[in-house]
Specification:
alpha/beta; binds flavin-adenine dinucleotide; globular; 567 residues; seven-stranded mixed sheet; six-stranded antiparallel sheet; 26 strands
Length: 567
């Protein structure tokens, strides 16, 4: 795979699986890529078998399935694969997006190029009161793999106190010790097995081995500043500067879709329908008995014999509940939606990490092209000494990162982008109308809490200190922004530079209080036959990017469902 977008093997195989590349075309391309004839034929046959199987299943649709999974994202891919392991289970996955066969999906450093395309839901916030009244774009993956197909590939579990905190809020089985075992089972980590890390699992996780010179400079700058380094932030200690672990294998994105969903698409009991947008959950009394969806220009209905699992992500899962009559009753009535069940917590307590885009530098030398995910190095740190865990995260980017309002910037540059990973602000999402196809009203309430502004101010100054280090001397021509602004000026700049860190969570929060949406086994409170399993159930956002914990949530949900079936 190269930066010009020529296909790697993973992409080519997926194009065959999706019916977009024929056997001959694949064999030719595989030969050019240096793959042996025997191996290429094996890969082609496997992908063609999946393609043919899915075609057959599409052409003979069933009226009912044991399980219906809504959304093939980070969590949905795990559920699809795990629930269909038993050939006795008929499983249907409905995904609104397409297969995700664009080359940029497979090139780890090109995730930004997917923003605003048809592979993105293209959501945006309402004007953010505390972020200079700006509308902030909020990209969400719309394809097999969901955001795991357009994210920055960082593999980060979170801090152990995150999960112990979930358990302490009345959610047994979600403490750090338990989820660590689940993470270990899932991983195939290139750094080898130890007390924390797993090998032999389905998800290939690569350590950064040959970092970009800018990423090396970032690490050196941290050391010169007297900050600790961490060899494995997913291991014994998160805190410190370190290179990222990436969901990348052989230079290509290795998403949870590649790891779990695609290999399962040969199974005769797993139907994966793309371009199938679910518009409504169907209830008989308090029991969810099926779904209504649009596919091929038709409105269709399908029944669930056992359960419906809602894995449409932190924006679309609460949206789906509300448009189906489950949510704050008063709001639903105002929109003319018949109330199935009054659940006031749906869509509330929206959390997201916050990025400040960014501390930008012009380079004095032509920069080598981006490597890895285009970031590769970071620092997990505390904005104040007394904190129990890191709350800020400056990230080195091998290119400029800037908001529309503050850009554009010269191409030959790089940036350090400070993030806030323990936000105090809480937002919410609401329906704009009863029309299920209308985008939601998304209020992230970025910087709604003064503590977030102050923590980010510390993060910005720390990032500027790192950027000014002699470790960057051979790159840095000048700091383009923000420069030395003083306290008030810096706060004003932060409000203009604040943007989405792409990690919304907690809109269908797990818990046992009256505003919780799902119980600790992820069943929707007060209803039957319906679970939610995705980033929306996090009781509180983790202090690291949210893909790995969401995959873990998918795995936990599968185990709950299967043990309930077998118990
Ligand atoms: C640009 C970007 C960069 C990121 N970078 C990182 C990173 O480097 N590391 C990290 O850990 N996290 C990262 N994240 C966050 C992480 O990827 C997400 O938190 C995680 O993937 C969420 O998983 P999910 O299962 O909750 O939802 P999603 O992965 O969003 O899956 C939801 C799926 O449901 C489908 N869907 C939605 N509505 C419907 C409907 N009505 N009918 C049918 N299907 C529907 C969607 O199309 C999608 O495929 C990033 C996210 C983005 C967008």
């Amino acid at each position: 795979m190269d930066q010009d977008g020529k296909g790697g093997l993973g992409l080519l195989v997926h194009q065959v699986r999706s019916g977009e590349l024929d056997r001959e075309g694949f064999l030719r391309a595989a030969k050019e890529a240096g793959v042996t004839e025997e191996r290429a034929a094996e890969l082609a046959d496997d992908a063609l078998a999946a393609c043919e199987n899915q075609r057959r299943l599409r052409e003979q649709p069933r009226e009912a399935h044991d399980f219906i999974v809504i959304g093939a994202g980070s969590a949905g891919c795990v559920l699809a694969a795990r629930l269909s392991e038993d050939p006795a289970h008929q499983v249907l996955v409905l995904e609104a997006g397409g297969p995700g066969t664009h080359p940029d999906v497979f090139i780890p450093s090109r995730w930004r190029h997917l923003f605003g395309t048809e592979l993105d839901w293209r959501y945006q916030t309402v004007p953010q009161q505390h972020a200079a009244g700006r509308v902030v774009p909020c990209p969400r993956g719309k394809m097999l793999g969901g955001c795991a197909s357009n994210n920055a590939s960082v593999w980060a579990r979170g801090h152990r106190l995150d999960f112990d905190g979930w358990a302490a809020q009345g959610n047994p089985g979600w403490d750090d010790e338990t989820v660590r075992r689940v993470f270990k089972d899932l991983e195939d980590y290139s750094g080898g097995e130890d007390e924390y890390r797993g090998v032999g699992g389905p998800l290939r996780i690569s350590r950064t081995v040959d970092p970009h010179p800018l990423a090396r400079a970032f690490m050196e700058a941290a050391q010169l500043a007297g900050l600790p380094t961490t060899r494995d932030y997913n291991g014994a200690r998160m805190e410190g500067a370190g290179f990222f672990d990436l969901s990348v294998a052989d230079g290509e994105r290795f998403s949870v879709a590649r790891a779990l969903l695609f290999p399962a698409m040969r199974r005769p009991n797993l139907t994966v329908l793309t371009h199938a947008e679910v518009t409504r959950l169907i209830f008989e009394g308090r029991r969810c008995t099926g779904v209504e969806f649009r596919h091929g220009g038709q409105v269709r209905r399908v029944r669930a014999l056992r359960e419906v699992v809602l894995s449409a992500g932190a924006i679309n899962s609460p949206k789906m509940l509300m448009q189906s009559g489950v949510g704050p009753a008063d709001e639903l009535r105002l929109l003319g939606i018949p109330v199935v069940h009054d659940l006031p917590g749906v869509g509330q307590e929206l959390q997201d990490h916050i990025l400040v885009a960014g501390i930008n530098y012009e380079s004095r030398i032509p920069l080598p092209p981006p490597r890895g995910n285009g970031a590769e190095a970071t620092l997990w740190w505390r904005s104040q000494p007394g904190l129990s865990r890191p709350d800020i995260q400056p990230i080195l980017h091998q290119f400029p990162v800037v908001t529309d309002e503050l850009g554009p910037l010269p191409d030959n540059g790089y940036s350090i982008v400070p993030g806030l990973v323990r936000p105090a602000s809480r937002g919410r999402m609401r329906l704009a109308s009863a029309n299920p196809l209308a985008p939601p009203i998304l209020d992230m309430n970025y910087l709604g809490h003064e503590a977030d502004v102050e923590a980010l101010r510390v993060a910005v100054e720390l990032s500027r200190e790192l950027g000014a280090s002699r470790a960057f001397d051979r790159f840095r021509k000048r700091e383009l922004m923000p420069g030395p602004l003083g306290r008030a000026g810096m706060v004003e700049w932060i409000r203009k530079a604040t943007t989405c860190f792409f990690h919304p969570t907690s809109t269908c929060r797990m818990g046992v209080d009256e505003r919780a949406v799902v119980d600790p086994r992820l069943r929707v409170h007060g209803l039957e036959g319906l679970r939610v399993a995705d980033a929306s159930i996090m009781p509180e956002i983790t202090s690291a990017p949210t893909n790995a914990p969401t995959i873990m949530i998918g795995e936990q949900a599968s185990r709950f469902i299967l043990s309930a079936r077998n118990g």
